[in-house]
Design a protein that fits this description.
alpha/beta, Rossmann fold, 36% helix, globular, binds zinc ion
C-alpha cells in the first residue's frame, strides 16, 4: 500500500470559478464554472485529496485584502460542501508579479510547499490550470500538467494550443474539470464502466 495521499492540485480562477479580469474580490463575485464543484466531489468520493494553488496578485496590488480572500474561500467551501465535496487546503501567492517571489506561478514554490505538507512525490500529482503559466509551474515542479479549456484557455485557438503543448509536451487537454475528473477516474479504474475518457489529448 502506498501511504502517501492521492492528491490533485487545482488552479482556482477559470477552473473552479469563472475568471474575472478584475479579480474575485468578494464572495458575491464568485460564479462557479458549471460542473466544476461536482467534479471535485467525485474526486473526493474516489479518495482524492484536492488542494488549490492560486495566484492572487490582487492582494499585492491592493485590490482586496486577506479578509476578503478568506471570505471568498469560505464561500467556495460552502458551495462545495453543498455538492458533497471539499478542498483540503488553499495555497495562494499574494504577491504582484514585480515582487518576483518564488510562489507565483509559473514558479513552483506553492507546489513544493504542498509536497512538503502532504509528503507526496509530485511526479504522481496531476495539476490543473487554464494558462500556460500554470502548466509551466506544473512542469517546473515535476507535476503532471493538465489544461482545461475553461477560463483563460477558452479563448485559445488550435495554433495557440499546439504552441502550449510544444512548450509543455506532457500537457493533457480537457474540456473542463468534469472531463479531467472523468479521465483521472478512468485511469485509476480502467475497468469500471463510466462515461469514458473525457480528455481531448
Ligand atoms: Zn508569491
Amino acid at each position: 500500500m502506498n501511504s502517501a495521499p492521492r492528491l490533485v492540485i487545482l488552479g482556482r480562477d477559470g477552473i473552479l470559478n469563472v475568471y474575472r479580469e478584475d479579480h474575485v474580490k468578494e464572495p458575491h463575485e464568485w460564479r462557479t464554472v458549471p460542473g466544476a464543484l461536482e467534479a471535485v466531489a467525485r474526486l473526493n468520493q474516489d479518495g482524492w485529496h484536492v488542494v488549490v494553488a492560486t495566484n492572487q496578485a490582487g492582494i499585492g496590488r491592493g485590490m482586496f485584502d486577506m479578509a476578503s480572500l478568506n471570505a471568498v474561500h469560505a464561500q467556495m467551501m460552502k458551495l462545495l460542501a453543498a455538492q458533497g465535496g471539499r478542498v483540503d487546503a488553499v495555497f495562494f501567492c499574494p504577491h504582484a508579479p514585480e515582487e518576483h517571489c518564488d510562489c507565483r506561478k509559473p514558479q513552483p514554490g506553492m507546489m513544493h510547499d504542498i509536497a512538503r505538507r502532504y509528503g507526496v512525490d509530485l511526479r504522481r500529482v496531476p495539476m490543473v490550470g487554464d494558462t500556460l503559466r500554470d502548466l509551466q509551474a506544473a512542469q517546473a515542479a515535476g507535476c503532471e500538467p493538465h489544461l482545461v479549456l475553461t477560463g483563460r484557455a477558452a479563448r485559445l485557438d488550435e495554433v495557440q494550443l499546439a504552441r502550449i503543448v510544444e512548450l509543455v509536451p506532457d500537457t493533457r487537454i480537457h474540456a473542463d474539470l468534469g472531463a479531467f475528473a472523468d479521465d483521472l477516474l478512468h485511469r485509476a479504474h480502467p475497468d469500471a464502466p463510466d462515461s469514458g475518457p473525457g480528455g481531448l489529448a
